[in-house]
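The passage that follows is intended for readers who have already worked through the single-chain material. We present the inputs for a multi-component assembly, then the predicted structure in tokenized form, and finally a short commentary. You are encouraged to pause after the input and sketch how you expect the pieces to fit together before reading on.
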Amino acid sequence: MSVAPKNNSTSDDGKALTSSALAKDLISTAVITLLILIPIVAMKTVIGQGVISIVYRFGMAFALTGIVVGVRLFLHLFVWHKAPSAASKSTAASALKTVSVSETIAKYIAPGLLIFALCFPVFTFFHPIWDKRVMDLAVYILIYIMLGWGLNVVVGLAGLLDLGYVAFYAVGAYAYALLSTVYFPQWFGTGILPWAFYITLPVAGLLAATWGVVLGFPVLRLRGDYLAIVTLAFGEMIRLVLVNWFSFTNGPQGISVPKITFFGLPFKDAPGSFSDFFGIQFNRIHFYIFLYYVILTLALITYFVTKRLRRLPIGRAWEALREDEIACRSLGINTTTTKLTAFAIGAMFGGFAGSFFAARQGFVSPESFVYIESALILAIVVLGGLGSQIGIVFSAIAIMGSFELFREMDFMKAVLPSGTEPIQFRMLAVGLAMVLMMRFRPRGFVTKREPTVFLKEKKSVSGDLVAEGHG
Amino acid sequence: MMQWTKDPELQVQHLTMRFGGLTAIGDLSFDAGRKQITALIGPNGAGKTTVFNCITGFYKPSEGMIKLRHPDGKEFLLERMDDFIITQKAKVARTFQNIRLFSGMTLLENLMVAQHNTLMRASGFTIGGIFGSGHFKRAENEAIEKCKYWLDKVNLTERADDAAGDLPYGAQRRLEIARAMCTNPRLLCLDEPAAGLNPRESDELNKLLLSIRDDHNMAILLIEHDMSVVMGISDHIVVLDYGRKIADGTPNEIKNDPAVIRAYLGVEEDENEVAIGNVKVADLVNEGLTVHADVSTRTMPKISAAPKKPVAKKAAAKKAAAKKGGRK
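Having made your guess, compare it with the prediction:
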């Protein structure tokens, strides 16, 4: 910390705050940079003699992180805060300055991520070693980002703790599975099958939304812990119905469903397929890239619709509901419909994601919709920062990405007890990480709330003032 | 005949609210006039907030009728309506004794939430809003203009983009009034708006309330302990004690009403010494209230229906006073 002494020489109390803020900023920079660098720099896949292996380059990742932090420190000292000694303003002024710096960064995070996400599959052409497994992982993470964004409507905005969110995911998946394998062939003939996903998607969303309302009605009067318990039970009920209603759902054996097609063109090495139609070499990666763009579109729809809803009266009513339900009623807001719309819209996005999940897997079974999935999605939302959409992206990458990371950590075997795989410790590690996170950043990655409307200047609201909702 | 009985905005008739065996309000009737400030006063625990909760639908009264009469002739029976419908249709807005702002939202957002129903209709119940209809944009701009007007009115324009939870106490009280006014009410119910304000702030509050009454033709119903506010601005005062009305009249009448003095000062059994029953008595005395010598000579009515609260000697005396006041 080269700044601290310099600051202390000019002023006493005010500068201590800035240097600690600066340190915090640099540490978070390092963490974010590492998060980004670990998948793209620290792990390099190398094709050998018929096998693909991963080369770890953690040293390089750390060096790059060091450079980023150094440049940022330089910018802090000489570009963003020109001559901190000359501008020895009040504590408040310097605190405001740092806020504005972090806000300018925040402004570029979302567009940056969007561009990165759009270009991501293009990298596969430049790095042919980035095989379908990387694309599949990206798809997998995007599903959880989308689920996180969907649950964020219910938990983050409306403040209704929902522990059974995976039920709507299951409804979406089974809606696709049953409609595409049983009902569509029955009603419209098998010709409809390649298009099944596109027709089923809205239906699955609507069905899930209906179930959201069905869940919403009985729990309208419940709050907090009681609400959480009932939603938990609801999630389990849906799963148990799927397991036991053998004649309808095929029980625990699950259902094989047609995979997604490119608007009717299947991905396979045969005439009439995607590669045949466009006259290109068949490659499995096309399927994964297409999946990636489909889920990216769905996730972006979730993102922008939610963002829009926040600025509409309904979204403001959700947030007001989280802040104070009684005050809402005193202002003439019908809290019943407000809660139900939150449940319905959150569930709808869950349904879309479920339907996509089924079309990606080509197989659904109740096993995919266990309670731990709900808990994971909730953990993503809480870790990201309640109500924050960008935070959810980072927490989904951190949690789901680290799960995958554990599969690769063969070097860990040296320290682990013999006969165990690193993957078996993933929950332990993620749990520990969450405990630490909640100790040092109890409100998640992004603690600030962005106001939906402003007169002169948009000021973020400190997380301490924002209520978490009481159900 | 006082003005408020001729063409009342709000008629409360035989209102009774029981919580199990406890009668919080017993057979209360009063009227609140149009364009008038009606104050509801009484010692702690007299049932004032319960009356408010009945009027605004947070409680369903056990008996009685609460009728709101709009100037255009529409009438609403509030005891039959849900709380949010009362604000939506009957146009009654309220504030709370313990401030209930949306503290994590900015001042502007707080006032925008108050215009939820108007904006909801304009946004075509969200569907039009999602696709960015021009109609909704215009409605939103109008709503923002309205917010600006009220922020200006309560002197908070400078802080429009700050979180409501960051405001000092007095400003939060003012914001809550502004938020209630953004729902376009006909009747504004304020539950202790001056609690915790310093003299300068409560003076500003007086001006604000008078301006709301005069410039916006509003009826205001007010619960207040601060006698400088009550005596300074109200047109009509209703005094409650143990859930019963003990007096009803203009500020001058109330100042000199023996039943009120008894309720506030308390009367001993031998009725020779006056016990100080409430801290706010000092305010009453400052306002020129005198203790009448004939307090002791008033006859005690027989105590037939004993109050259901634990009864002390003093309470029995109060009860007697209540009966007298009610008969006036």
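Commentary: Residues 58 and 83 of chain B are 6 Å apart (CA to CA). The mean pLDDT of chain B is 77. How closely did your sketch match?
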